[in-house]
Structures are given as C-alpha cells and as structure tokens.
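ok trying this again, last paste got cut off
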Amino acid sequence: MSLKPYTVVLLIPTGIGAKIGGYAGDALPVARAIAKVSDRLITHPNVLNGAQLYWSEPKILYVEGYALDQFALGKWGLTPVRSNLIGIILDQGIEPELQLRHLQAADAVRATLGLSIKDYVITDAPLGVELRTAPSGASWGTISNPGSLLRAAAKLVEQAKVEAIAVVARFPDEENSPALQNYRQGSGVDPIAGAEAVISHLIVRNFGIPAAHAPALQPLPLEPELSPKAAAEELGYTFFPCVLVGLSRAPRLITNQSRSSLETIWADQVDVVIVPADACGSPALLGFSQLKTKIIAVAENQTRMQVTPESLGIKAIRVQSYLEALGVIVAESAGVAFESLRPELLSLSKSDIL
C-alpha cells in the first residue's frame, strides 16, 4: 500500500503585520523550503504574491483565504489542475493610462509565460475602495459598490466560462501616510492587505472559483531608505504578474462532494499546519485544530494579534523559527519522533488507562 502524500498548510494571515509574510512575497522563501521537504504545500496568495516577483512550483497550491477557511472546516475540497482559464475584472475607477498598464501586464504574461487569459470586463461603477485600521493595528477595508464587482464576475463566469478571476481595483494613493512610510521602511502593517482580502472573499464565496486581487496605484517616488522586504512592490507599474501566475494553477474548488475525484484533497489529509504563534484565531486554524492535524506555532513570526494556541486550548508544537519548523517536518515525514532529536529524552512512564 502506497503512502499518502505528506501535506503541509502554511498560514500567515494578511494585514496583521507579520514579521515574515507581512510584505509582498517575503514569505516565499519559507514556502519554497517547505515545498522541498513535503509532497505538497497549501498556502494563500499573500504568502506567494511578490508583485513583479513570483515562484511557480507545482507542489505549491495557491488557495484564496475564504476558500482555505472552507477547506479547513471540511466543507470544500481542492483538486489540482494543469492550468486555468483566467478572466480579469478592472475597476471603472482606474484611470485610462493605469488601466492600460495592467492590460499590458496581462499581455506580457500571456506572451512570455504562456498563460491562458481570455477576457476582461470593466465594472459598471467604480468599486470605491476605502481603507481602515483596526485598534490592534491590523488593516482592513470596504468597497462601496460590491454589486458592481459581482455583476462583472457573473459575466466572466457565465458568458466567458472562466475558471479563475483576477481583480484589479483602484486603491487610494496615500503617499504621505505614516502607515505607508512605516511599511516601506519595514516596520509597519501592509495598509491595503485587509481590503484586498474583502474583494477576493466576495468572489470566491459567491462563485466558488479561485480569485485574487492586485491593487491599482500610482508609482511611488524613490525611497532611499526602502526596506528589502518592501522592495518587490516598487519594481514596476503594476502588482499584477504574481496574481496571474498564481491563479493559472490554483486548484479547482470542490464545493459539492459529488464533484470530487481521486485527486481531490480534503482537510483530513493535511498532516501539518504552520502558523505564527500569536495568530491562531483564524477560522482555518480553528478548523484544523478539530482534526488530527499537527499544529506548529512559530514564535519569532510576531504579528499584531495576541491569540496564542494555549489561549484557545489548542495543542501545538511550539518552535522558535521556521528553520526549526522545517526540522520538525523533516522528522515527521521521515517517521522519526522529533523528541528523539533532543539532548534529553524522558523514560517511558506507565499509563493509568491500561
């Protein structure tokens, strides 16, 4: 009998100021390393999206946050695909020149990477993105015209028969805001991440297909003190290429078990979930905590949240770093009890239940 694939989920919630994964694609090295020592890795777009930068790895499954929550709760399955036909939604609020930049970015990935992109539609009203900050410092946001977004998505799904949707919404330019300055210098929260999540969640929840978002913003002036973690977002006019690459192989979302196949992955097949140690309150983590899945909590990836596994009664393996988490995964996948790798090993004790 063959062994089932060793499956890892990497969770780093967006917009909460994570030291690793709170910037554009800065958790990609972590994801690449985990993919090397596992059979498949499931993670969400903000881990993999690096604006102009991306890393296409067949073993990494690109799953939007709402879909990942539904997967963890056992409601949805994931079926890997070779490629998706992508449709594009452009916010009517994007200026003509900036709109053209995004269409040229889409044509570039078609011509250079061979991605399947069929059509684009423009919303029938500006989406009206507004940014907000929670008392914890986490970012979030709203859109004034969600109906316009859903009508555009319906056209692509029903008429163009697309299998994934990329959205570009016009975000407010806040060049001089303290939040943006802190972020560019490597010490703040991504000010737009929470609003981006709202947009993609809306499409995935209503249509059950992969979706991801790229913000339309005017290029910022050069910043001599720019943090390397924020540098990926300053390389070009758009943030679009990584979204299109990610969606091109995003797994099909199985919202009805009758559509599943032998290739479909379900939550009870996940061996390990890795999460920041103070960000354990997400629906996905709570879902996995009800299964036999091992949870690894990484202490050094601090966030603006204060929700530890212990505070929720969740059993977790605490490690200091992602390097240590990788060691636990290697031991687990090799069938080696990681306790045996420590200098001290306690003697066996007699169980009271026998």
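PB: full thing came through this time. DSSP finds ten helices and 14 strands in the chain.
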